Amino acid sequence: MLIQIIQTAVVSLKSNKIRAFLTMLGVIIGVYSVVTLVALGRGVQNYIQDQFDAIGSNLLFVSPGKSDFAGDPASSLTRNRLAEKHINMIKRLNSPSISGVTPYIVTGDNVTYKTKSYYSTVVGVSDNALDIFNYALQEGRNFTSVEQNNSAKVAIIGPLVKKELFLSNSPIDKKIKLGEESYTVIGVFEEKGSNYDDQVIIPSSSAKDTFDIKNYSNIVIKTTSPDEVDLVAKEVQIELLKDLDEDEFSILNSQDILNSIQNILAILTAGLGAIAGISLFVGGIGIMNIMLVSVTERTREIGLRKALGATSVNVAIQFMLEAVTLSVFGGLIGLFLGYLTSLAVQSFVRAEITPIAIILAFLFSVVVGVIFGTYPAVQASKKDPIEALRYE
Amino acid sequence: MRKKVLVAKDLVKLYKVGTSEIRAVNGVSLEIDEGEFIAIVGKSGSGKSTLMHMIGLLDTPTSGQIILNGSDVSFLKDNELAKIRNREIGFVFQSFNLLPRTSSIDNVMLPLKYSNIDKSTWRQKAEDMLRLVELSDRKDNKSNELSGGQKQRVAIARALVTDPSIILADEPTGNLDSKTGVEIVELFKKLNKQGKTIIIVTHDDDLAKIAQRQIVIRDGKII
């Protein structure tokens, strides 16, 4: 019986293809935009997850100021007192759960080799930073603790910097210019992800000299395992409070930072999806409008069906299913276009259409069809067969 | 004695127009036997259409009684009336009322879709009816590809397909030229010979003459 009615619905929609398509367009655009935005949101979340996976989840970041994502970002600039002293305090803890500590200075500058110049992220760290951040070298060597202590002008460059400045030539022992000083390239690290590959890594002591920086952007602590992160955070907190005020520093682990960003992104994605949902609503209104026109146009047909034995419920179901068919077809087309889009952007973002998104898109279009098909269907079912047959 | 298919007792239908009442049908009683060929005749405004709507169970009387095949159907609910119409009454309309862009066979099967008849028999029944009205060769043609006479024959096949007790035809030749009209009249005669009860509603005296019995309506009453 249901198949019968759906067939009837499809036949009647087929008889007016352009109108059916235009009516569906609202739902197509609605479902398409919801699906695509949610997929792109997922893609960005995936991207950030990848970035964090690249540095590992057993890191603690001691940041200056009360940087809990809620406070005034300017406060972290004005109160930065993080210095070598604090590195030493953490080292003196001799905690078995800490496998490494490094200062972290980050700034940006043009790196120049002969006539070529490339704007890169300059990172000042200690000699154990490659281990802490899981960098692997494809060429050359790390700098030594002696070079670190002597503020040696040596640099490890990222694959992107190498490509831009040296093409396929070996950059080892070449002189590059950072700030006003000349640095010797001693190593190149392996590709690590687009956010890292443009870095130039130098000893933190050298970074202080060259860029005239007094304090550290962060102190980064690596724990022996991700489970130790909270424990170490407490130990370090207590120790640093001996020198710093409570609002002069904060300790975040990479998971906290990741969660904060993911939360913001999830809210953003949901918000965008909801805005896109408005077009789905407008599409529904379009369906209702056309169904009402259709009910009026087909008054005779309704009357005939009733005269031949159709009950009000039969008629209501027929018109309801026409609305749902329109909406579901539109939804499926929108979903398919969304899928194509997510494939098209695959090289930029790992956009992802989850099974939940598919089910939701389908359910949404059914619900839109039902909601906006009800009123026209009820109108159709109320027609008196006599009046309907008389209608010219 | 022949079985009575339809008995109407003192049917009255009132319409309210503003504050005044119009008695469209004002006390009509009639009996129709199985196998009869009857014409209900009257000018426009005589009340014959209102009477037809009540006999066809498309409308309920204000007062009075309609007994169809022995059961009282005067004041049933819309859904119950729809089911009885489907089983007991075959309608033929002046303007054919076929579904547009739909094949003859699908048009003929339409009443079956609202019946309890086993789906596997639908096509066979529809084909049988199309053969009866001599349109087997047009069964897959869409309704807009048919001539007026062919359309009306499809409509008659549709009226016959649930094997109803009464065929109720409202001005069945009104939209046809005289030659095609005669063909349709001959078809009704043939069906009547096969035992069908046929009621034709018309204002056309010539058409009415072919019936065995004429019921003339004027001002809502039989004269």
Automatic annotation (TrEMBL), chain B:
Residues 6-223 form the ABC transporter domain. CDD domains: ABC_MJ0796_LolCDE_FtsE. It comes from the Bacteria. Keywords: ATP-binding, Nucleotide-binding, Transport. One of its GO terms (molecular function) is ATP hydrolysis activity. InterPro entries: AAA+_ATPase (IPR003593), ABC_transporter-like_ATP-bd (IPR003439), ABC_transporter-like_CS (IPR017871), ABC_transpr_LolD-like (IPR015854), MacB-like_ATP-bd (IPR017911), P-loop_NTPase (IPR027417). One of its GO terms (cellular component) is membrane protein complex. Coiled coil: none annotated. This is ABC transporter ATP-binding protein.
